[in-house]
Batch of 2 targets.
Target 1
Amino acid sequence: MKINVLILAFLGLCFVQCKQDASKDKLRRERPNIVFIMSDDHAYQAISAYSNKLIETPNIDRIAQEGMLFTNASVTNSICAPSRAVILTGKHSHINGKIDNLSPFDTTNITFPQLLQKDGYQTAMFGKLHFGNAPKGFDEYKILPGQGDYYNPKFLTQKGDTTITGYVTDIITDLTLDWLQHRRVKEKPFLLMYLHKAPHRSWLPAPRHYKEFTQKTFPLPNTLFDSYSNRGTASKMAEMNILNHMILNYDNKISAKIIDSLGIKDRRLFDPLDKMTKDQRTEWNNTYDPINTDFAANYPSMNDSTLMVWKYQRYMQDYLGTIAAVDENVGRVLNYLEEENLDQNTIVIYTSDQGFYLGEHGWFDKRFMYEESFRTPLLIKWPNAIKAGITEDEMVQNLDFAQTFLELAEIEAPRDMQGKSLVPLFKDKKESWDRDAVYYHYYEFPAEHHVKRHYGLATKDFKLMHYYYDIDEWELYDRRTDTQEMVNVYGDPKYKDIVSELKLKLTALQTEYGDSEALRNQYIQIYKDKGWINP
Ligand code: SGN
Ligand code: CA
């Protein structure tokens, strides 16, 4: 009798425990899915949720309409692979070691996908990573080698390489949808990293957008003819001016034959279209041959300013043309989530690995801490938790994603991660958000585009930068009055106290994040050892 009572009590306890475990399990299964969409070099100026001067992006905009639009999101180091390393590790470049596109990613770094995978998330990555090594922490990946190609791209997979015929943005989406449809494990929450190559240079649109975009004319930015006066050496020395450094053949798609016949000494002649099939090439020629003919006829009468405008228009036509395909494909993924009733408990993020110049200051490309390359688009929706239609102007960074995702997945973040979870901002608990400055450090110099090394800090009101390697120059911009950053006020006596205050803050941030002169010298030494000495 006594024994029976004991057995019953034991079974009862087991039942309660099992029930608790099951409901805990259920709760953990109900952790949100994460769809992280990132394009490459997508300027916020080219998303209509921010501004529709250049293009309409109705699908990307849906994310902001149904969630939040961040107007003050930035990167810690405005270049591709380093930005991706910051995102995955939640650590600044000087800590995770991926300071530039050239150094290998140190795979002993712990990344947030590894932690999610270990804790029950199904994980997948499709598209551009640009690390030179395979990602860790993914159940499945299909990634472009290096920069990848727009047409008929090759992908690296766990089962070897595969080349797929078609247009890269469509293919990355097909792979993503195929995984969602056929290999998603319904019992698990998932992390999906859906990473576009577009709109990266050399800006090749999909055939369906050739006609529409090559016929468009775009408004000129009012700093297109910037002479870089009132600023330091770095802006004057950069090689990313549309008139002087954009390549007529590679970038503007004027054939080598025409360039030669016009006697133009272009810096580089090579064919970005060489991966196309014969049919794709024919379709391309149908649109681009007449552009070539027109250019040949008009070039002799062009001066610097008309050539600048012509190149800017050509640049915008192709760059924005690639974004039209990104937008359509983002729509396909959002639709799928809705059709499968996955949208309510899925957090969807749209961002870029950094910002980009669309003719502001006469530039293309990125790398600088000046606004257009420092700032990056960020749109987030999660119907279960985020109210629709919110605009958020707090200073957030790509550094913050890892800790945000870990918090959503109820996983404790490693203590050495350096970002801040965005969850309080999602829940409108801004009182617990106390960040008043962000840190930036760019390293890749000497290198293409010649943007000098610099670090700096940004507050909502000011930006202080130090170019420290081959020159020793400070720049200060007053963001309240000079939103286009046209006048360096560092030497202006009016700003003396502000400079002192910001320098103290900068030192405090460097101490907090563990950046130091010794570390800077160590990273410079790597370039010296490789013989990459500044000319
Ligand atoms: C390539 C581009 C550069 C660009 C870098 C880095 N040149 O080298 O214009 O700055 O990538 O871009 S290209 O002639 O190869 O197109 S990043 O996005 O990968 O960082
Ligand atoms: Ca990039």
Target 2
Amino acid sequence: MIVVLKQNSDKERVERLMQHFTDMGLRINYSEGEHTTILGLMGDTTQIDERDVLAYDVVERVQRVSEPFKAVNRKFHPEDTILSVAGRKIGAGYFNVMAGPCSVENEAQIIEVAEAVKKAGASFLRGGAFKPRTSPYSFQGLEAEGLKLLLEAKRQTGLPIVTEIMSEKHLDLFADVDIIQLGARNMQNFMLLKELGRSDKPILLKRGLSATIEEFLMAAEYIFAGGNQNVILCERGIRTFENLIRNNLDISAVPMVKMLSHLPIIIDPSHAAGRRDMVQPLSRAAIAAGADGLIIEVHNDPKHALCDGAQSLDIPQFDGVMADIQRRVAFEGREMQG
Ligand code: PEP
Ligand code: MN
């Protein structure tokens, strides 16, 4: 349920109303926008009679929210959320490109790619240290050593880093990571969602391989429910009957999520396509659809990459794609972060 307050309401009276809801065991999401202030009520609101709430003179109107996601619902927070991470703004009019290899392989590789993507204008360095692989015999990532190398690349280039977590047991290792990625395969790992909810780190939450948009937003709701409001969503393609393409980029998820939620959403064209020649067209589609950024795989030697080489751009290709992205982001009147 949302309670829209009258403009310039007396603070003390608002506090009295909030106390009334807290006494009923409800949690309140307070959202003060430019024009409206909204109390989003979470918990068992079936006990509330709307007429009782309207009796408070600070209340403009009361509306029931039928969607199961509350805190991430745009009705609770009508304005776009803008996150600020390492001096970069994410969301609304700001556009970020996160780029780097699928996996951190060695120091020379990650430093070379970090320098190149920074030069091309990326605002974050991506790279997996803990890798969720379909086969237990595939390269599993350098794990803690990979995190160290990423931090070294961050130190040398100044680029903030985004990297995937696979277990809540590793959270301490991620203390200096700027954005923690929760991968598609863990989107409904509820223990991990709860732990990330208790942390204050920005979370890049990737959509599960077969998750509906509602399930995707409910996963974000878990993180919010724990108190962490720093969530960036990522559409990375879903499973369909089509098998020529690794995953199907669900471009309609962008406007749909924007309608339903205030959270930023970026696109991963690399995992969606599974092939490098589709990264540019899908990036263009993402910008046109209103995405807040892209996460792109880049490798200094894709032929010999230990993971996802076929979808990784080499450095000159990334330079070309970035130049194209920059032109199109400017055309859309949005501001590139770098
Ligand atoms: C990745 O970003 O390398 C990755 C494994 O992504 P996803 O979880 O979307 O498959
Ligand atoms: Mn990958």
